[in-house]
Design brief:
Length: about 300
């Protein structure tokens, strides 16, 4: 089964300071690797509009981000927090990243392809309704999930976060909307310091599985297989969104897990098996973390190849 790649071309122009881990080389590494994968249908991303952004974000937050981007002159940077900076071109990158997920949700409802991967940066899963943080400007996956519910009429959606860092921003959506199931399997303690077992959302629609540094891969898979997947299937979402962070890879400098390329293919296969059962095979994934470029490229290729083959 061929799958869609929604390519946010403006990702290449979001500038960060020298030495910053979330740099344009990440996008280029992932794109180069994906271009070698068979059965991918490439689509150029469209920017999200204000109405789409404001289903999740406050108007004040959208204004704040766009005004900071406008204030950054050519070659200049403006900090939103200690880790999150914008340049003049960051507005287009952020809008395209969010728009890519909206577009993917629309396409998997109607196109022959039922799976999509959004190739975009900056990442989004740390951005809260009124706060940019952790390299993230807009929460692209939350914006896409809101569109699936309120724009496309789905009754339930799920967000599965496989990034090594907890998706605190995405969890905010589930904490206010019982139509959303959010699950995260992440390293703890680690930034942003959220995602405990006690955080269960509305009637259990949040599942956090925090695991320590150097958790064996077999144990990681066991938690995914025996906890996360049954809860996901029981929720029966009409569309599955995946925050595809590849910083759980053993080569990643920002995390302490030991996953490898083949593990990301396995994750894709297992999530797609649930999508086949509950969501008419509809699965939308979006690039989040992954800060060793060779490992990022290989992992993204393995993940998408498994989806395309399924």
């Amino acid at each position: 089964m061929a799958m869609l790649i929604i390519d946010a071309l403006a990702s290449a122009n979001h500038n960060v300071p020298p030495g910053h881990p979330e740099h344009a080389g990440r996008y280029e590494a992932a794109k180069t690797a994906l271009l070698a994968v068979d059965d991918l249908h490439w689509v150029k991303a469209k920017p999200a509009n204000r109405g789409e952004l404001e289903r999740f974000h406050t108007r004040a937050h959208v204004d704040r981000v766009l005004e900071a981007c406008a204030a950054a002159g050519e070659g200049e940077l403006v900090g939103l927090d200690a880790d999150t900076v914008v340049s003049g071109a960051s507005a287009a990158a952020g809008l395209q990243a969010a728009g890519a997920v909206v577009q993917a949700a629309e396409l998997v409802m109607t196109a022959p392809q039922r799976t999509a991967f959004c190739l975009a940066r900056p990442p989004g899963h740390h951005a809260e309704p009124d706060r940019a943080m952790g390299f993230c400007l807009f929460n692209s996956i939350a914006v896409g999930a809101c569109h699936a519910l309120d724009g496309l009429g789905l009754k339930r959606v799920a967000i599965i976060d496989i990034d090594v860092h907890h998706g605190n921003g995405s969890q905010c959506l589930a904490e206010t909307d019982k139509r959303v199931f959010f699950a995260s399997l992440h390293q703890a303690p680690l930034y942003p310091g959220t995602g405990t077992r006690k955080e269960t959302g509305l009637n259990g629609n949040v599942l956090n599985i925090p695991l320590p540094d150097q958790t064996p891969v077999a144990l990681w898979r066991q938690h995914f297989e025996t906890e996360l997947l049954p809860a996901l299937e029981a929720f029966a979402p009409g569309m599955i969104f995946v925050s595809a962070g590849f910083d759980g890879h053993r080569d990643d400098p920002l995390g302490g897990f030991s996953l490898d390329d083949a593990d990301y293919a396995w994750i894709a296969e297992r999530l797609l098996s649930v999508a086949h059962k509950t969501a008419d095979s509809r699965l939308v994934s979006v690039l989040e973390g992954g800060y060793d470029c060779p490992a990022l490229g290989r992992s993204a290729a393995a993940f998408t190849a498994a989806l395309a083959a399924g």
